Amino acid sequence: MEMKKRISLELRNRTPAEVAELVVDNCRSSDGEIEGLTDEFKELEFLSMVNVGLTSLAKLPTLPKLRKLELSDNNILGSLETLAEKSANLTYLNLSGNKIKELMMVQLLHSQTNLKSLDLFNCEITTLEDYRESIFELLPQVTYLDGFDAEDNEAPDSEADDDDDDEDGEEGAGQLGDYEEEEEDEEGSEGGEVGLSYLMKEDIQEADVQGEKRKRDAEDEGEDDDEDDD
Fold it and tell me: Which portions of the chain have biased composition (kind: Basic and acidic residues) (predicted)?
């Protein structure tokens, strides 16, 4: 599907000014340029154009509120200076899997003063000697490169939320386990009471049988004594 048509469909009866997030991944751009995206998208904060065949960002409209831009798996060679001109508030930029080869291409992002996270994974530039050190030196405003800071500490993301969910899940599981144990204890207690009652009942019945037997034996002995007297 062409990018222009895809953007039109993604509007879903909204005006461009009402859209804060726009995802047009895997559509097709004409001649490697952005199409269908205009200055009317003034409230746009998140834009994802993954694998759309882009080679240039020259036609990127002015997006003053754009903070996160996903451009991975395209064929972008340059024109990164456009980002500083059109999206000055950008804090996250993903250019992984593009044709970024030289440091001078990345240096064009120097004026992107709000940029905190940059991803160049799977770009040819990552094979350069002292790649990470060079990027952090060229772009001192960047805190995280390819998901890690200069000290190799991983960038915070949704994993923290997942860990919290796991902890909640463990607590929930413990509470459920305690509840199940209580049920088992109750069942065990009831079972013990039933078993004890049953054994007591058996003992009583056995005592009754033995008592009857002794009574009959005594009567039989009494009859024998009467016969002997006669």
Answer: 200-218
pTM of the model: 0.69
Spatial distance between the Cα atoms of 45 and 66, rounded to a whole number of angstroms:
4
Q: How far is CA 206 from CA 192, 200, 219, in A?
A: 21, 10, 20
Neighbours of 68 (CB within 10 A): 15
Supply angle C-alpha 22, 51, 69, rounded to 5: 40
What pairs with residue 69 in β-bridges? 47, 93
pLDDT digits (tens, 9 = 90+) for 205-216: 555 555 555 555
Per the structure block, which two tokens stand in for 215? 């009574």
Identify the weakest region by mean pLDDT among 12-21, 102-111, 195-204: 195-204
Q: How far apart are CA 4 and CA 78, in angstroms?
A: 22
* Domain boundaries of the chain, sorted by first residue: 3-155
Domain 3-155 falls under CATH 3.80.10.10 = yes
CB 47 within 8 A of CB 68: yes
